[in-house]
Amino acid sequence: MTTQSLPQFGRSNGSSPSAIPAVEARSLTKRFGTNLAVDNIDLTVMEGEIFGVLGPNGAGKTTVLNMLATLLPIDGGEARIFGYDVRSQGHAVRQLIGVTGQFASVDENLTGRENLWMFGRLQGLSSKRAHSIADDLLAQFDLTEAAHRPISQFSGGMRRRLDLAASLITRPALIFLDEPTTGLDPRNRNQMWDTIRDLVAQGSTILLTTQYLDEADALAGRVAVIDRGRKVAEGTPGQLKTQIGTSSLRVQMSEAANTGAAVALAADLTSDTPVVSPTGSGFSVKLSDANQAADVLIALRNHGLDITNATVEQPSLDDVFFTLTGHESETPIPETEANKS
Amino acid sequence: MTAAITVPTTSSRPTARTVQTSVPVRDALRQITTLAWRALVKMRRNPEQLVDVTFMPVLFTVMFGLMFGGAISGSTAHYLPILIPGIIAMTTVTSCLAAGVQIREDMDKGVFDRFRSLPIARIAPLAGPMMADLARYAIASSVTITVGVIMGYRPGGGVLGVAAGIVLAVILGWSLAWIFLWIGTSARSVGAVQGMSMMVMFPLAFLSNAFVPVDTLPGWLQAVTRVNPVSHVVSALRDLMNDGAVTAQVGWALLGCAAVAAIFIPLAVRSYSRQV
Question: Which chain A residues touch B38 with a CB distance below 8 Å?
C-alpha cells in the first residue's frame, strides 16, 4: 500500500510560500571528459515562481536541468529539491518533480490515452483512477479526439502537449520544462505559454530552460542567464534590462545628407555616441532618460532636419545577452536541427 | 475540504507530502506488471517481432528433422524424440537473444528518460519486458511441439510431460535472457548488442547435446557440453517429454538456470543502473 498522498487536481495556492526553496543548487558542476559543461552554478528557485534558465544552444541549460531531475549524476557541488538532497535522496526527489524534456518522452507504440494510463499506474494510481485522470488531462490539453490514435500519428504540437500532460498526472510540486516551445509554431507556442501560466496559478513551481529571449521575458519571474556553463547574470527580466541601462531612440531621416548634422545634435544632447544606420539614412542613440527623446526631436525640428520616422525602443533581452556575454545570442535554429542536438 | 481543519495548512503543500524513501515490494510488482503490459501491447502491434518464436521453430524443426534424421538416428521418426527437445532449447536460446536488442533500443528512446524521472523501482523497466517475454518462450516451445507432432512425434510423457517441458523451457528462457540483457545494457549500440549476442548464442545452443549424441565429440568438447546448462535442460526435456520421468537431470537443469540467473541478474542490474 502506497503512503503517498496525491494532491487534488486544481489544488489551491492559498497557503503562503514555505521557507524551503523548491530548488537550491550550490556550485553545481558537470564535466564531460575535459569539457566543463556546467561550471559552479548557483540557483535558488522559490516555490510558486517561474524561473527561466536562458542561454544559447550548448550553454549547459539541459545539463543543469538533468542534474536537478536526477537524470545525470552531479560531479560537483550540491542540489536540494524541497530540501531533499538530489544525490542521496533521488527517489524522494523523483516523487516531487515532473520532467518534460526537449523531445517527447512518451511511448510511440501506445496511444495517447494508454500512455497516460501507464504513467498513472506506474505512479501508484488504481487502474480506474488512472483512466479518469488520463481522460481529464486529454480534455484539458485538447487531445480528446486523438486519444485513441498511436503517438506516431501525432503532430509536433500534440506530442508536446501529451508530453506535458504526462508530467502532470500526479500534479508534481515542481515541473522542469526543457525548451517547452522549441520547434512549435506561434499558435502552439502561445497555447503552451498559457498552459504554463495556468500551472503556476494552480500552485506549481516551474523551472524552464529556453533559448528564446522573448519567452523568458514573457513567462519568467526571474531569469538566470547561462553562457558556456557559467551563470553570467540573474534577476528579474526588468532588472536585467536596467543593468544595461536604457531605452534608445531610433530616427530615420528624410534625406540621408542630413544624417551627419542630426548625429552631431544628438551627440550634444545625450551622453552617448549615436550609431549611424548601415544605410546612412538614420541613426540610433542610447538615452539615459526617455525625456531625452523629446529633446533630440525638438532640436531636429528647430534645425529644419526632417525625419520620416522615430521610435523609442526598450532594451531587449537580446541587448542584455550581448552586454553580458560579449557575443550575440545564437539565432534560434530550425526544428529539424534542434532535434538532432 | 475537511482535511484542512485537522491538518496544518502545510499538509496540502507538496513539501509536506509523505515522501517514501524506497519502493515497497507491492508497488514494484505493480510497476513491473504495468511495464509487462506495455511490452505485450508492443508485441501485439508489431507482430513481426514474433517471427523468431513462430516461423523459426517451424523452419528448424522441419529442416533439422529431415536433414539430420537419417544420418544421426537412421530415420526422421527415430530422430524426433531426440530432436524436439533440442529444438525447444535452441529456439528458446535464440528467442531470448531479442531481450538484449530490445532493451538497448528501449533505452535509446525518449520514453526511457521518463521512466528514469519517475519514482519507480529502478529494476522495473528491465524486469517488465522480461515478464512479457515469458509468453514468447511459451509460444516458441508450443510451436515446436506442434510441428513435431505433425511430423510424427509422439511424446511418451503425455500432456503432463509436455506441459512440464514447456514450463522448463520458459524457465530456461527467463534465466538465459539475463545474459543478453547484460550485453544489451553494457554495449553502446544495437549493432554491437546483436554481434555480441550471436557470439554467446551459438555456443550456448550448439555446444550442447541438443542435436548430436555427446559421445561422438572430442573429449574436451564433451567437457564443455557438460557444463553448458542448455545440455542439462535438453536432457531434462527428453526425460520429461519422452518418458514422463522427473529425473536428476531436471534438478541439474533447474540448478543450471538458477546459477545463470544468480550470476547475470546482478551484472545486468549493475550495468543498467550505471547507464540510467
Answer: 107, 109-110, 118
d(CA A60, CA A31) in angstroms, rounded, equals 11
Residues 6+ apart with CB under 8 A from B211: B64, B68, B72, B82, B83, B86
Are B17 and A7 in contact (CB < 8 Å)? yes
pLDDT in tens, B197-228: 999 999 999 999 988 888 888 999 999 999 99
Using an 8 Å Cβ cutoff, are A30 and A67 in contact?
Answer: yes
Q: How far is CA B119 from CA A177, A186, B18, B27, in A?
A: 18, 34, 13, 10
In order of A35, B79, B100, B149, B178, the CA distances from B207 in angstroms are 48, 19, 21, 26, 19
| pLDDT, position B101 | 92
Choose among A38, A105, A79: nearest CA to A174.
A79
Give the start-to-end residue ranges of the domains of chain A.
23-242, 246-314
For residue B113, which of A161, A98, A241 has the smallest C-alpha distance? A98
Report domain A246-314's class: alpha beta
Q: Is A46 on the interface with B (CB under 8 A)?
A: no
Predicted confidence (pLDDT) per residue in A143-179, tens digit: 999 899 988 888 888 888 899 999 999 889 999 999 9
| A168: closest chain B residue by CA | B118
**Phi, psi dihedral angles at A149 (to 5 degrees):** -95, 145
Position B14 scores a pLDDT of: 45
Question: What class, spelled out in words, does domain A23-242 have in CATH?
Answer: alpha beta
Closest residue in A to B275 (Cα) is: A72
Residues in A closer than 8 angstroms to B24, CB to CB, are 1-2
Whole-complex ipTM: 0.83
Delimit the domains of chain B by residue range: 25-275
For range B255-264, the mean pLDDT: 96
C-alpha cell at A332: 534560434
Q: How many CB atoms lie within 10 A of CB A158?
A: 20
Adjacent-strand bridge partners of A227: A230
Q: What distance in Å separates the CA atoms of residue B80 and residue B61, rounded to the nearest whole number?
A: 9
Residue type, A224: A
A70 close contact with B: CB closer than 8 A: yes
